[in-house]
Input
Amino acid sequence: MIEKACLKCKRIVTGKQCPICKTSKLSTKWKGFVIILDAKNSEIAKEMSLTEGKYALKVK
Ligand SMILES: [Zn+2]
Output
C-alpha cells in the first residue's frame, strides 16, 4: 500500500483523501515521519496543531 502525505496538514494517508482536511492533494514525495499517540500531552502536536496519527516531516 502506498503511503501519501497530505500537502496541507502533512498527515500520512493510504486512501485517496486526507481524513482531516478532506483534500485529495496528496504527495508521494515525503521524507521522515512522526507518530502522534497522545496529542494532548505532546509538545510537537501542540506546536504543529496535530491530532493523533502519522505525519510526514517533509513534503514536496
Ligand atoms: Zn490533511
